[in-house]
Amino acid sequence: MTLQQKLIALLAGTLSLPLGAAQAETIRIAIGTQDTTINCATGGLLIRELKLLEKYLPHDGKYKDAQYDIQWKNFTSGAPLTNEMVAGKLDLGSMADFPGSFNGAAFEKAGRKSLFITVLSGSVQGSGNGIVVPKSSPVQSLAELKGKTISVPFASTAHGMLLRAIKAQGWELDKDITVVTQSPEVAGSALQGNKIEAHADFVPFAELFPHRGFARKIFDGSQAQAPTLHGSLVDADYAKKYPEIVTAFLRAAIEADRIIAAEPEKYSELIAKVTGIEAEVDYLFHGPLGLQTRDFTWKPEYRQAVKTSIETLRLMKRTDNDLDVNTFIDDSYIRSAFKQVGQDYDAQLKNYARQPLVAKDAATGKTITDFSRLVQVWVAGEPLVRHYGTAEAAFAAVRKLEKDGKKIRVVYAHDRNSGLKLFAADAWFVSAKNDTSAFLSRASAEAWAKQHGGKVADYAAVLGTGGDRQLASK
């Protein structure tokens, strides 16, 4: 048969291409990440750095001869990532509930559809978002900001938290409080120069700025009781065409989660190396009993968070689309990934526990079972964080270590009421009869002292290394 005859036969449908020819396509997998939004690490940074996606991509069936063109692009926020997804330059991307909802609305406006396919990390309480003030500010609570100006990245998950917190105060925007837009990068400089009275932000900035010493956290998102999450989205057309690739991406995310759960210090250091976000901050989120919980399941609170973000974006006139959360969130791909790795999705859906800590008390050698007064100490030069069942034991160890010339990288404490993981240097403490407890705010510490007795003090005072913020109990 001549070439001309073959072409005629092919057009007539009587001749098929060789089997391998149709399968030898090069498939693009273009993924947008937010590396500095560190709770997205299992959906981006770790997969890329450890080359986990390559491990799970299909090479059988219709993918038998496929070649993969994996492309990674990093962003500092969700909006530009969404722009490139809508423009067809990216296939998958990770972002928070608010920008994720905007992603869905932007796709709808373009006559297309995106799917929110998994949660990566979040908090049903709302921790992760927060409000900070300059280090030298006398402000200790949100209530004290009445009549002042707060900056926030507009249309972010932190913006949603701030609006909810303002409403809870009974304030009116532009009357009782002024809210202006400001990116995290600009806010950092503004806080250092005392050019802004307060700033609200998302992961990790409400913790990063205090850790770097130029801000204090006065409000945590959990106080607004506004659940928050970061997760991954996919272009629906891409998912329909390549469902096995989407599932492979999620299997890689599950593997990344397993790896960082096993060695959180090691991979917090890797995140720090890639992002410049200090490992001490990364461990605050990704270590056991972390500030947020890595969780791939669509808990009702997370579904509600997306629904609330859609409604809020409409009220803010950031979109006029009314996304149907029931079709926008699609858990079929993550369920498939769970099934392939032998995990029970429905069981995890009911599990609200933080990343567990299985450890022995560094002072007594006994297994820690009560985490209400847990304090963790990361000593410079030591690869693993030390765990202490009580603040008394931890602080005694810190004093001895420093006396011996050792440097303490960071000390973590846990809020006695909520279990929220805190930087001890920024926490408040109540000490009474060998019972020292940590608290996020001075107000909650004072309330505890009033009920249980004891004195309220800052970290320096309770550690005995100076400081004058020791207060008589009320």
UniProtKB/TrEMBL annotation:
Return the Gene3D superfamilies for the record.
Answer: Periplasmic binding protein-like II
| InterPro entries assigned | SsuA/THI5
According to the entry, every stretch annotated as the SsuA/THI5-like domain falls at 111-266
Please provide the record's keywords in A-Z order. Signal, Transport
Task: From the UniProt annotation, give the residues forming the signal peptide.
Answer: 1-21
Task: State its role.
Answer: Part of a binding-protein-dependent transport system for aliphatic sulfonates. Putative binding protein.
Record's family?
Answer: Belongs to the bacterial solute-binding protein SsuA/TauA family.
Q: What's the name of the protein? A: Putative aliphatic sulfonates-binding protein
Origin organism of this chain? Rugamonas aquatica
